[in-house]
Design a protein that fits this description.
Blueprint lengths: L1 H19 L3 E2 L11 H13 L3 E14 L5 E12 L4 E12 L2 E13 L2 E5 L6 E3 L5 H12 L1 H8 L7 E4 L3 E7 L6 H11 L9 H4 L3 E13 L5 E14 L2 E14 L11 H6 L1 E2 L3
Parallel strand pairs: 1-8, 7-13
Antiparallel strand pairs: 2-3, 2-12, 3-4, 4-5, 5-6, 6-7, 8-9, 9-10, 10-11, 11-12
Helix pairs in contact: 2-4
């Protein structure tokens, strides 16, 4: 019993120490802060939950291997503008796909999500489609988790004691190695929000039943003056088994956030509203 109490006390002490340490300065840094990880995280959560609008740019490198089939590689460049309340989004996603046994493909998808509905351009025809209103609530939840930087901070807050805490002259740099069973539920939930069925027609709960994550690394950069997120990077390898199939997916996401509270309005062009064909479920 005494050993158990001593071990628990030691573990708690280490956790509290990690949260109350100041950031390790990067080489050459002169403008250092004495704020602790807990103080920075709390301030960042507060400030990022107060934002009214933001722009983001992201590059997603992804490779997918199904069983013994050839690997498919893709690079997506995503430009997005978002207003928080009510959630309104304009996004342009340009993707280039290559494979060992397939021709290179490139396409751009533009979309709007506003009070008028969700509109998406068909990259092959250039025409516009309007998704059913029944799907709007699900899309709102998905886009909020992807576009609002505060959502990522909230998702990772439970693991604050696992972060590495550094700083340079202008920014705090928070790094989390989220590999291992401890982070599995959180990663499955996040992946399920971003990719409900990965386009395979398989429900998320079945798809992620036998899933493991490797080499998962988050790097969050926070501005020292505003405490707003400047960038968020994620590296991850995901292995899935379902039925008789297996799939390995490697992802590298680099996101930057700018123009905080400068996006005042997002409107769907009238010609898009008038020409869009409504899709029926």
């Amino acid at each position: 019993m005494k050993k158990s109490i001593l071990f628990t006390t030691a573990a708690l002490t280490l956790t509290l120490t990690a949260c109350t340490e100041t950031a390790e300065p990067a080489d050459g840094s002169k403008d250092t802060s004495s704020m602790t990880l807990e103080e920075v995280y709390s301030k960042a959560l507060e400030k990022n939950n107060e934002i009214e609008s933001v722009k983001s740019t992201a590059v997603l490198n992804q490779s997918v291997t199904m069983g013994s089939e050839a690997t498919i590689n893709s690079v997506s460049e995503i430009d997005m503008s978002m207003i928080n309340s009510p959630l309104t989004v304009h996004q342009v996603n340009t993707t280039k796909m290559t494979g060992e046994e397939a021709e290179e493909q490139s396409f751009t998808i533009e979309s709007y999500m506003t009070k008028e509905g969700f509109f998406m351009q068909d990259p092959s025809t250039g025409g516009w489609a309007k998704l059913p209103s029944e799907m709007l609530e699900q899309l709102l939840q998905m886009n909020e988790s992807q576009s609002n930087p505060a959502s990522e901070l909230e998702n990772l807050e439970a693991y604050i004691e696992d972060f590495t805490f550094e700083q340079d002259d202008d920014s705090f740099i928070l790094t989390l190695n989220a590999s291992g069973e401890k982070f599995s539920d959180m990663l499955i939930e996040q992946t399920g929000e971003l990719m409900p069925d990965l386009g395979l027609g398989i429900p998320a709960e079945a798809l992620f039943q036998n899933t493991t994550f490797e080499d998962v690394l988050y790097v969050i950069t926070i501005d020292k003056e505003s405490f707003l997120i400047e960038s968020l990077d994620l590296d991850m390898t995901m292995n899935m088994k379902f039925a008789e199939e297996s799939m390995t997916m490697e992802q590298k996401l680099e996101s930057e956030y700018t123009h905080y509270n400068e996006v005042k309005e997002i409107e769907v062009p009238q010609e898009v509203i008038e020409s869009a064909e409504e899709i029926e479920l």
